[in-house]
């Protein structure tokens, strides 16, 4: 393998909607949805929800905090979607770094909650919103763009693509943004207690090879579709389009998860063979990692992974969003970085570990070699 | 710019569903939807559709063939989605090329009609379906994967990412697959007359630099989000989630297009400054292009572009799917290649031009330097 270029992160900006949603509100909204559904079923079939069915709606703030670890999250205002989160984060990034729109050669827009189905792509919306020129005199001005998705591993996949584009463009704008509130089924506590909204923008910039923060061997990617059903959406994709009122009313087009199964599979995987494969490829040990940033799927689950790493020789610190933003999917890792500016010092080696639906995993290991400024609106 | 590797296409396979849908059937289905809606509105508000509203449903086979150029298209059977189209095409590709699943280092799954919303990603489903191993003994086996979308330019974007990955992996499987029937509003003839379903699989393989079919300068990408509203989906993305029965009943979650505007904007663009920028970057002239493959958005529109190219010095042939498959979005360019095996001879230079929603454009120019086998089930 050969590279004649490297990549640094010039800066990261994160934007979270102002509207804080507490665990109380989540529990109450689920309760209301249960009452409504129960009333409707009683009217329509003369019988309300059974005890087992009711359990899927029942939670309380203490349980959420103890079992999942989130204390609150942010939701967008109605009318705001993923593109709005991304635009806010990108504007913050470009204002603070001073990098002009004309310097952006590629946009990799990582999201699983596209602003629009089918078209327009979020990459094009962002190009326009940021004033990245579409024309250079009489000729179209080149900008590469793509919307990239890989469930909770999306940001890791987009970052790896960015690294590959350093050969061609000087600055790649990597977005990790999700309005996960729009993916919640209010008939199922599993994800309702977990998901939140945030947008992030990461500026990846070309540097000479000796200043590379990464290296091809420091990226690792994994797919295991044999367990695709653990995190999945029954209706609304091309496999089974949304067609009936009943499907809509019962949130069949929203995300589902077997949370116990995720924990059983993911904690041992990321603690053991997952990280072993990553470190083997990178020729590093757990003791070489100063900071670990795990996709914040579930704070308690992540604590389990960090504990296992520590038993195996990890002496660094876990950087996270402190359970205050929920699982923000494509935004979680850059959000955690943006909230921990003091940790991002030159010489530190950071493991970025995205994992989730698919199953999938995408990791990157960066050694900071330049100032690494980050900004957040919270 | 430096490359120490190149890329060839080892083969392309295309799969179209067996079910042929004629223009007659499309016109009849639109008529039925009109009658149903008219009846419902008459019952609910005492007044049916007005003349202007009725016009959006009215078409006839002659008009479709004359004005758009499609004679038929394929739709999936119910229960089949994008992943099924991709699996069929990929199996055909791997059987015929003899490349084993263990050789695939990356899957770039180009689609705008993901099989599932949010999760699981199609890349993971395909890894599992093809038997690409998730494990190598006790450690996870590395496969890069991502779902990639950029409206009608999706396949071009995925191909360009594949080229960048040649530095790291020997074979990249590029999927272009869409079940566009699931994006049709049956209350609007604009896309109903146009869209079709197909899956394609393209095997991109590393070769020494002197055997490269491409070169960095032979890819061009463009975004112009200022005209994002021309091809867009009102409801169902994170910007405006699908919430009401009325939205569902009136197909607000399906794709819309201002067809006249697309023609007005795209024909002059692809005929003029669009191709000029592509050729300037590639240091080629129109006379150097032996074959042109345009995204088959609309046969009549494409004929206009080819005519304009010919006036400007293009002496080659346009390769297409003959108007028999509709606009298959991410599948259209590889499908056209797969249906024209005799044209794909060593020494020929082919311009692959994807364009559409966003607006966006992604082009690649390939000079064939090895045998270029293609297969199709039709």
CATH-wise, what's the superfamily of the largest domain in chain A? Thiolase/Chalcone synthase
Report the portion of residues of chain A in β strands: 15-25%
Total count of domains of chain A: 2
List the total number of helices of chain A: 12
Q: Name the assembly state.
A: homodimer
The main pleated sheet of chain A reads as:
6 strands, mixed
What is the residue-averaged pLDDT of chain A? 97
Q: What is the 3D shape of chain A?
A: globular
The greatest inter-chain interface is formed by: A-B, 97 and 96 residues
Count of distinct strands of chain A? 17
Euclidean distance between termini CA atoms of chain A: 41 Å
Rg over alpha carbons of chain A: 21 Å
Order of helices and strands of chain A: EEHHHEHEHEEEHEHEEEHEHHEHEHEEE
Quote the CATH topology of the largest domain in chain A.
Peroxisomal Thiolase, Chain A, domain 1
Bin the helical content of chain A: 25-40%
- Walk across the major sheet of chain A and give the strand order: 7-4-8-9-1-17
Show unreliable segments of chain A.
none
CATH architecture of the largest domain in chain A: 3-Layer(aba) Sandwich
Q: So what's the CATH class of the largest domain in chain A?
A: Alpha Beta
Structural class of chain A: alpha/beta
């Amino acid at each position: 393998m050969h590279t004649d270029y490297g990549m640094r992160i010039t800066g990261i900006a994160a934007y979270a909607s102002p509207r804080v949603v507490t665990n109380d509100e989540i529990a109450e909204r689920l309760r209301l949805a249960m009452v409504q559904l129960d009333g409707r079923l009683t009217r329509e079939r003369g019988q309300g929800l059974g005890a087992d069915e009711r359990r899927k709606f029942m939670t309380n703030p203490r349980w959420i905090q103890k079992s999942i670890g989130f204390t609150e999250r942010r939701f967008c205002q109605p009318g705001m979607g993923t593109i709005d989160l991304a635009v806010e984060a990108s504007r913050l990034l470009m204002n603070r770094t001073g990098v002009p729109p004309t310097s952006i050669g590629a946009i990799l827009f990582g999201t699983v909650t596209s602003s629009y189905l089918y078209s327009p792509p979020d990459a094009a919306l962002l190009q326009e919103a940021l004033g990245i020129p579409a024309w250079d005199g009489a000729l179209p001005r080149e900008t590469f763009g793509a919307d990239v998705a890989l469930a909770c591993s999306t940001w890791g996949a987009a970052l790896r693509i960015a690294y590959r584009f350093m050969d061609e463009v000087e600055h790649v704008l990597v977005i990790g943004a999700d309005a996960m509130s729009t993916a919640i089924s209010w008939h199922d506590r599993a994800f309702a207690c977990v998901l939140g909204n945030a947008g992030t923008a990461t500026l990846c910039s070309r540097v000479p090879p000796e200043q590379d923060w990464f290296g091809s061997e420091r990226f690792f990617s994994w797919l295991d579709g044999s367990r695709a059903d653990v995190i999945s959406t029954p209706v609304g994709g091309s496999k089974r389009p949304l067609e009936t009122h009943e499907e809509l009313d019962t949130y069949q087009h929203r995300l589902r998860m077997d949370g116990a199964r995720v924990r059983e599979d993911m904690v041992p995987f990321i603690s053991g063979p997952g990280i072993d494969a990553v470190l083997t490829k990178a020729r590093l040990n757990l003791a070489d990692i100063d900071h670990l940033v795990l996709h914040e799927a579930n704070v308690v689950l992540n604590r389990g992974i960090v504990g296992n790493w520590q038993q195996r020789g990890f002496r660094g610190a876990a950087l996270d969003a402190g359970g205050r933003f929920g699982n923000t999917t494509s935004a979680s890792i850059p959000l955690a970085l943006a909230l921990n500016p003091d940790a991002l010092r030159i010489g530190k080696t950071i493991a970025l570990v995205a994992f989730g639906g698919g199953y999938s995993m995408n990791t990157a290991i960066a050694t900071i070699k330049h100032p690494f400024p980050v900004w957040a609106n919270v």
